[in-house]
Specification:
The structure is a homotrimer.
Chain A (H helix, E strand, L loop, with lengths): L22 H14 L17 E6 L4 H13 L3 E6 L11 H10 L4 E6 L4 H8 L5 E7 L5 H12 L9 E5 L6 H12 L4 E5 L12 E3 L2 H5 L4 E4 L4 H5 L6 H8 L3 H4 L7 E3 L12 H4 L6 H20 L2
Parallel strand pairs in A: 1-2, 1-3, 3-4, 5-6, 5-8, 6-7, 8-9
Helix pairs in contact in A: 1-5, 1-12, 2-12, 3-4, 5-6, 5-12
Chain lengths: 312, 312, 312
């Protein structure tokens, strides 16, 4: 079964999830993104692949970082960009989401980037969009964050060779993390079998294939990649995890712990980091950290997705 | 008497109201807008008519839809656009409105698009603007919304031939509607004589020429155009109209009622719609609805107004 | 000692303060700004000096006026501009300021414009920025507002010849004013020795060289330049200054007072003005006022700073 992100010819038309992405499509996106990747300090070149098109960025959840990344991606491809920050006015004057789509489509918008806290919103928009219109999910509830998954595997690929032989440890609140879900899906497509989840028992996932650990040290042993997740302070208030200090002691990544992983293991974090909680500054800014590369790859991946979806 | 929207040579210099617009000017705007209109799905072409000019969009009332329409119009003409969303900070640090105009003019802004809940604001700005600066009203209290009136008659014109023979029914809270006022003015200029207003007695207008009905069915009989207005929930809270269900029963447009109008009558709505209140989804999405065309025409009309005002 | 705004070759790399700016650098900036200055009514030409670069505007304090000025400056030089209005969400999801810098740098941003209410923020960003990245302060606590100081002396220079012979009176809350501090620094570099401060005793500065007056009339005698500051209503609530009426009587500029200054003295105000409090409308809009010229010069000065910092 293919999901609604493919068109009648089986071509990727929207990007809603990585779950059912064929390996070929994923590889093509990564190749394309690698071409768009720019080193920090180098000028970011402009392209005209999207000249004449209008991209609408609809964020129903606040996120300066991801919104800016999509905005830059679209503008660097030459698109006209309209950003609608709907985080604090969840509707356009009480209009339904689908009517907002109809309205913006009628203004000749070609591509919608949407982030929403409710499950199903990107899918609903894809179902109601005009045939030539594309939808990209920029985060769907706790379910999916496909461009984050892509930037994660692009970053790993820049440092590690064979995805089939990788051991990847993901640490933190995996149960509520769309970042983890999309990363696991991307890794699975690329053949990674050794995926370990570490965190407090209540935050380990029910629905993901991988080995579960409440002891972080065991999960790190021999890992090639250590992916730290941001801990939400709300979880502490809800009593799901211990206080910051205790959390940090049990699930924070520091120099001693990182030595349990393979030499040359890379450290990832989707940002924004709680320094001193899930990760120490020593590690975040250290030689094994690829955290800033992830951010740069984020723009490249989003450019690649837009370019692929909109190419004729 | 000509209003202050004309310059000494009688040329349209600002767009504040349709009330005293000569038929020639109105027709020229519609012709121009028709050239800018783009089908949904087609690429929206870019022009360079406004290249080198700066457009300031000053919205003192929130409106994602209209603001986006003006922004796209200006950008598609090549202008630099600065959007100042002043809805939640009604002043620029306590500065008077006219001082804000002076300040922005001093930064070489050439055209101001202004929406404000108080009557007289666009006129005041026009009086204080530098000679080469243009003001466009994007909504003035309950008084005027000239680009909405233009897009309404542009949409009618794409479907109906002779404005002089049209019967137009406008339904809802006409008394408080700048949309209705501007539409009626545009229709009057084009020679439409048969205009009917339907709604609860307290929401019928005192100051507009047309036949008034509290029975919606009678207003619809033989109508060529049915223009539904958005009902404001605030009016219900104020006790001016009955609850949603009762309002819908008496003044909602559904399939049965639409049959009272002429076959081929078109259905309009300025948006955003309260589906199930003033209009059913069957009608909103049905074959007689031109609601999405109105949105697309909105961008075209705003491009036409900007291009006309700023052409030498 | 040179501050951290110069690079190893002694070249201006950031603009954080005017305090230690060499006279040559200041003059070069003014010359450049004069080339960018445009008369009101004239079209603002576009340049491509910053084409291919991305400018991030980070405002942690609200300011429509200054933010718009920087935005226009960057866009008129051809830069891609990302504006992050952080006034009401002082952090990017709890991320530290320096991590936000790292994140945005990783997206290939080249220049940051920052306004912040805490002292030291521009300096901190400059210390952590990548070598090719530039920081411009757009206002730092009560300490510094260097582009305002530049636009002030640029405006004076358009009207007065010899800075060494000027008498400049600054009136209002000088103690808490970054505008006054930067103006005084710029004037000192240009050789102005006769600087007078007038205001209630508690609002006179401790740390600036100049003659202090609690009697405004005495400060105005023979002045070439009268620089009025905006009075903050918060100071009244705090009891630091008398009520508006009394303040206006003692420290407001009106026609009678202005006659104490030299004939041909110019009147300045950084805006936004409290008309009728620190300045009467007669003076604000009168022939000696250069207040709107200051605004236009603001854009020109910001273009000059960006162009100078980013030129190879």
């Amino acid at each position: 079964m293919t999901s609604s992100q493919f068109n009648a010819k089986g071509r990727l038309h929207h990007l809603l999830t990585l779950a059912d992405l064929p390996r070929d499509s994923l590889m093509a996106l990564l190749e394309r993104a690698a071409q768009f990747a720019v080193k920090p300090g180098a000028a970011a070149p402009r392209f005209d692949l999207l000249t004449g098109t209008t991209v609408a960025i609809l964020f129903f959840e606040p996120s300066t970082r991801t919104r800016t990344s999509f905005e830059l991606a679209a503008r660097r491809l030459g698109a006209e960009v309209i950003t609608l920050d709907l985080a604090f006015s969840s509707t356009m004057k009480g209009e339904s989401l689908v009517d907002s789509l109809y309205t913006l489509q009628a203004m000749n918008m070609d591509l919608f980037v949407v982030r929403h806290g409710e499950p199903g919103v990107p899918e609903t928009l894809a179902q109601h969009a005009l045939p030539h219109v594309h939808i990209i999910s920029a985060g769907e509830a706790h379910i999916s964050h496909p461009t984050q998954g892509l930037l994660d595997v692009l970053t790993i690929r820049q440092h590690k060779r064979d995805f089939e032989k990788l051991a990847v440890a993901i640490v933190g609140d995996i149960r509520h993390s769309r970042v983890a879900r999309s990363a696991v899906q991307a890794l699975a497509i690329l053949g990674t079998r050794d995926i370990r989840f570490a965190g407090p028992a209540e935050l380990l996932p029910d629905d993901l294939a991988g080995e579960k650990f409440t002891n972080m040290d065991k999960a790190l042993e021999g890992a090639d990649v250590v992916m730290m997740l941001r801990i939400q302070k709300e979880r502490m208030q809800a009593g799901l995890i211990p206080d910051e200090r205790e959390y940090s002691r049990r699930y924070g990544l520091d120099g001693a712990r990182l030595k349990l992983a393979k030499p040359g293991a890379i450290v990832m974090h989707p940002g924004p980091m709680n320094r001193g909680v899930e990760i120490t500054s020593e590690i975040a800014d250290g030689p094994q950290s690829v955290i800033r590369e992830q951010v740069g790859n984020g723009v490249a991946v989003r450019m690649a997705v837009m370019a692929m979806l909109m190419s004729k």
